């Protein structure tokens, strides 16, 4: 048994994102974004109602207060503030987040605001080709200015962009569907570069307009091990980590590409177009912390031409081949290998490379769940997952890593990427399924009570040998 303790100022939290919980996708003047217009699989819920947080926000915040979290990470929907992504501000949109923020502060919960979580205004795609054009950078900058000016007196912790890696590759998020395969392959890196420039402008503005504020990116950190000790696999893992994580984070922090990655992009004719004046904005604006989302680790082996089209697009490459971590447990939805130690290893890698404080902004366990007859959800596996990952947080802090906080994904059951409500991560159950919105009532899962108690005590006891989510 291990007693796992945390510093008194540790930011215990939970996370959500606007399009995954809010619903009300066209209400009170909200415009459509790419996640609203994307095609969802037949039988899977869309953004129209989601967890209906837009109409339950007060009740939801009282649940957060009951849970005892110190911080709540949520995202602002760009198209509630600017329905077309540009032009006139929608006062009702501003008001919604005013209410949310004021209510959080009334409960002493620190808001941690993601400015953009996958939901690009559709109008910016139709009019400018989204992140392919510099106009979208200007629109994002204007949006950032409104957020900092309007909420900066109350919101001190900001996240510029959630998971650029997903946005640059996923057509559902970036909205770019009119290019052939070759053009799209190149477009991915142009979109990435423009997002990096946009977030640098947000760092600059945040520091100017919210003088006591802090800001950083939220990276989907891919912790990649060599599949074997063969040096070629070791090199493949280095390539994959550089390509999938350090390329984006080096741009966020250092304002430049890793040399090896840049040369690869140039060689493959994939390097983005840049302007000389970008240099200044990229170099001079640094984040205050690095937020990262971590669910699992991966392995890489040397690329031999073997097909990898069963993998998500961002894992396909001719520099490496991504494979699941077979030394770790896999489950129905956790398909790459659950690896709590890997989260501490990730922190060590990130801190060694960037020497910035860290925040874990997503980490959680996906499962298929149904309410019992007594309206309970006994999510022991999720509790086991959270315990073992938080244990690694505590160890990392003991090893000298400045880890500011941990926000579990997710607060409520929410729309999961492509799987809607068949895959759930919440500490709070939302009573709906993909095809039946039922009464949308909230039920606290067993993990809610476990987390509540851990936060209250600022410590918990774990049996390290008992991994109740798996058998490895
Ligand atoms: C991250 C996203 C979240 C969330 C999570 C789980 O990539 O930032 O928005 O969706 O992953 O992913 P999924 O729901 O697809 O399993």
From TrEMBL:
UniProt keywords, alphabetically: Glycosidase, Hydrolase, Plasmid
Highest taxon of the lineage: Bacteria
Keyword Mitochondrion carried by entry: no
GO molecular function: beta-glucosidase activity
GO CC annotations, alphabetized: cytosol
Pfam families in alphabetical order: Glyco_hydro_1
Hydrolase listed as a keyword: yes
Protein's GO biological process: carbohydrate catabolic process
Similarity section: Belongs to the glycosyl hydrolase 1 family.
PANTHER family linked to this entry: ARYL-PHOSPHO-BETA-D-GLUCOSIDASE BGLC (PTHR10353:SF136), GLYCOSYL HYDROLASE (PTHR10353)
Protein name (Swiss-Prot/TrEMBL): 6-phospho-beta-glucosidase
Organism: Carnobacterium inhibens subsp. gilichinskyi
């Amino acid at each position: 048994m291990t007693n796992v303790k945390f510093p008194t100022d540790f930011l215990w939290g939970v996370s959500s994102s606007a399009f995954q919980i809010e619903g009300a996708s066209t209400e009170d003047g909200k415009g459509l974004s790419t996640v609203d217009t994307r095609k969802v699989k037949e039988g899977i819920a869309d953004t129209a109602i989601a967890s209906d947080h837009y109409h339950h926000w007060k009740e939801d915040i009282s649940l957060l207060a009951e849970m005892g979290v110190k911080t709540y990470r949520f995202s602002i929907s760009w198209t509630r503030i600017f329905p077309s992504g540009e032009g006139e501000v929608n006062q009702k949109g501003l008001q919604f987040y005013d209410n949310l923020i004021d209510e959080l502060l009334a409960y002493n919960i620190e808001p941690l605001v993601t400015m953009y979580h996958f939901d690009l205004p559709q109008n910016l795609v139709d009019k400018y080709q989204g992140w392919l054009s510099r106009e979208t950078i200007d629109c994002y900058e204007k949006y950032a200015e409104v957020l900092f000016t309007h909420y900066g007196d109350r919101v001190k912790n900001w996240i510029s962009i959630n998971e650029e890696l997903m946005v640059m590759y996923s057509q559902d998020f970036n909205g770019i569907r009119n290019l052939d395969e070759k053009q799209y392959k190149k477009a991915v890196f142009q979109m990435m570069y423009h997002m990096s420039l946009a977030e640098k402008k947000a760092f600059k503005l945040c520091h100017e307009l919210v003088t006591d504020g802090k800001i950083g990116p939220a990276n989907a950190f891919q912790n990649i091990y060599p599949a074997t000790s063969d040096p070629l696999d070791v090199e493949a893992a280095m390539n994959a980590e550089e390509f999938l994580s350090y390329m984006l984070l080096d741009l966020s922090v250092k304002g430049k590409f890793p040399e090896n990655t840049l040369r690869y992009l140039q060689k493959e004719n994939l390097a983005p177009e840049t302007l000389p004046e970008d240099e200044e904005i990229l170099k001079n604006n640094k984040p205050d912390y690095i937020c990262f989302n971590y669910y699992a680790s991966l392995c890489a082996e040397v690329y031999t031409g073997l097909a990898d089209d069963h993998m998500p697009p961002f894992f396909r490459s001719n520099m490496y081949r991504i494979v699941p971590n077979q030394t770790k447990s896999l489950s129905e939805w956790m398909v790459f290998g659950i690896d709590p130690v890997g989260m501490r290893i990730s922190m060590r890698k990130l801190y060694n490379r960037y020497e910035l404080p860290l925040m874990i902004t997503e980490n959680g366990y996906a499962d298929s769940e149904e309410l019992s007859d007594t309206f309970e959800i006994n999510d022991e596996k999720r509790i086991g997952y959270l315990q073992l990952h938080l244990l690694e947080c505590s160890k990392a802090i003991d090893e000298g890593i400045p880890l500011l906080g941990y926000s579990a994904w997710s607060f409520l059951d929410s729309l999961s990427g492509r799987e809607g409500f068949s895959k759930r991560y919440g500490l709070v159950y939302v009573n709906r399924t993909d095809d039946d919105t039922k009464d949308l009532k909230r039920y606290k899962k067993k993990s809610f009570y476990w987390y509540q108690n851990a936060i209250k005590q600022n410590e918990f006891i774990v049996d390290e040998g008992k991994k109740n989510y798996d058998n490895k």
